[in-house]
Structures are given as C-alpha cells and as structure tokens.
Amino acid sequence: MNRRNFIALTAGAAAAGYGIGYFLPKTRADELFLRPPGAVKNFESLCIKCGQCVQVCPYHSIGLLDIAQGYSNGTSYIDAHERGCYLCDLFPCVLACPSGALDHATTQISDVKMGVGVLRGREACLAYKNENVNLNGITKMLERKIYNDREQAVKDAVQNSVDKPCDLCVSLCPVGDVAIAMAKSDGRNLPEFKQGCVGCGVCAEVCPAQIIDIAPNRGYDEIYKG
C-alpha cells in the first residue's frame, strides 16, 4: 500500500468511526471513567477506538475499556489507581488523536480538565497518622515493570520515600502545590486538594493507603463548593 492510499484509508476510518459514534446511543462512561488529557465533552462519540493514544503514552497510563463496557468498549481511559497521567510535555496522546476526541488545543497543563481529586478515609492517611512510608504500601509500584527513564524516575522517587514521612501525593503531583498541598487538620498533616487540581490521578496512583479517588469530568467547585 502506498502512502497516499494509507492516508486515504486512515481518513476514511476516522470518518466512519465518527459517524458511527455520533448516531449510536451513548452511555454514562464519560462520567464514570477518567479520560486522557484534552478529552472533549462528547469524547465517547468522537473516539474511534484506534488506540493511538495508548501507543504513544510514555508512562503507559492509558488503556482501552473492555467489552464489559458495551458501547464504550475500545475507548481510551485511565485507571488512576494503576497509573496516573503525568501530563508530559507536548501531550503526545493529544497529538496522536486523529478524530478530535482529544482537543489539539491542549498544549499546557492549565488546559487540562480531566476531573478533580477526592480524599476519602483520612484516618488511613499515613501523613495524618504521622507514619512513615513502608514497603508494604508501595510494593506494587516497585514491582511494576519499567520500560523507560520516565517510569524509572517515578519508581526511584517512590523507593526513596521509604522510612520517610509520607508526602508522595504532593511531591509527585505534576501540577504542583496549586493542585494539592499538605495542610493542617486537627493539628496533623493532611493532603488538601486545591483549585488547580486537573484530575491527573498521580496522587491516587502513588498513595500507599489508596485513599484518593478522582472524580472524572468534574470541576473543583462542583466537589468542594457545590
């Protein structure tokens, strides 16, 4: 197949996927699942399930929903408890999207609106309990297969936190302290989500107690001021 035919075939597939997605009945998947950065409001309609975003993600954060999700089968999502989105430079997932499901106007972190973090069960938070990070809480992250230097840097940061006060959710947040910071609660440290949180999910991934969730496609005010 020559280059011209390949481009025509790709364009045809994108158009067909868009047409099918536009007319088929929709689900609530965009409310239930965390989508890659730059996801538009009608993401589920526009995603042609090509998997290009999955292939280019350097952190292996993006997966595809399986057949159990019905219509949404094959659309891309992020399971933050497995691997959050590190909001890497140039957003390769966005650039790779051929259908417009990921908005190509997403060029910087402030453009991202994936959702917002939510802390549950503060009594289990190591920082709140004034406990250090121990191997039991991070074994899964340390045993995960590593493919590149970026993933290795995350693993090293987690490894270096052992026997130190836990602040992984704050120290590894790719957005910074405008998104999450340690605050005092009853005289003890506790992570607090702030207006700048974009719902990337890194905090949920690296929390040893696994007490952080991401509310997909929700804004800060909806959760904390609603």
UniProtKB/TrEMBL annotation:
InterPro entries documented for this protein: 4Fe4S_Fe-S-bd, 4Fe4S_Fe_S_CS, Fe-S_Ferredoxin, TAT_signal
UniProt keyword Lipid metabolism present: no
Keywords assigned by UniProt, alphabetized: 4Fe-4S, Iron, Iron-sulfur, Metal-binding
Chain ranges passing through the membrane: none
Any Pfam family matching the protein: Fer4
Domain of life: Bacteria
Any GO MF annotation of the entry: metal ion binding
Annotated ranges, domain 4Fe-4S ferredoxin-type: 37-67, 74-107, 189-217
UniProt protein name: MauM/NapG family ferredoxin-type protein
